[in-house]
Automatic annotation (TrEMBL):
Subcellular location: Cytoplasm
Functional pathway: Protein modification; protein lipoylation via endogenous pathway; protein N(6)-(lipoyl)lysine from octanoyl-[acyl-carrier-protein]: step 1/2
Protein name: Octanoyltransferase
Organism: Brevundimonas alba
High-level lineage: Bacteria, Pseudomonadati, Pseudomonadota, Alphaproteobacteria, Caulobacterales
Miscellaneous comment: In the reaction, the free carboxyl group of octanoic acid is attached via an amide linkage to the epsilon-amino group of a specific lysine residue of lipoyl domains of lipoate-dependent enzymes.
Chief location category: cytoplasm
Keywords recorded for this protein, A-Z: Acyltransferase, Cytoplasm, Transferase
GO annotations of cellular component type: cytoplasm
Amino acid sequence: MLSQSLSTAVSKLIREDRAPVEWAVSTGLVDYPAAVEAMEARAAAIAAGEAPELVWLLEHPPLYTAGVSSKDDDLLDAGRFPVHRTGRGGQFTYHGPGQRVAYVMLDLNRRGKDVRAFVRGLEQWIIGALDEFGVPADVREGRVGVWVERKGPGWSREDKIAAIGVKVRKWVSFHGISLNVEPDLSHFGGIVPCGIHEHGVTSLVDLGVPATMDEADEALRTSFRRVFGALAAGQAPV
């Protein structure tokens, strides 16, 4: 439950001028360094008033990324996949096929200039998208990302279904979120995801929801409009 003040701040994430955000989807697997270079260039152009905001959806080949708070001990198998040190917030995470990565380049100068509210907006975006599939999800105090509760006879646990890691420069965001649609969950075994030892990871398909990537994209698109406003067709940078 958001506090009243934070709820008010989140409500300001829609631009007053209602200008649409470009929405672009890359086909195939996108090289991570190329994606970071493209994001940095687009964020700089947005800050300079030379380009519109962009949400860029893609998939990466299998890899691990280390955020600014990552701990070396949380990299359990350094030789398994390439490891990329990155300037986003957070710790270690995995990207790979079957996981929808969404890089979010928004001008927070026009959206309340409140990073905490922006992160809560990202959380609400993911939670709303999962609700499109009838999957209840929420955030947890002290844990980054979005979580689902799983129960069976005599047991219950909470698993992470989406990660969030962002960077803000000149009040323009980049990096973003990753939603597990149908990745190989064993690939998370080479790291301690987000530094959290006592919980696991899951995906829509692992939860028994046979979602396609296109269906996940449509759910993300629908929920994004509710939180951040209008969308328009855009072109993927890579």
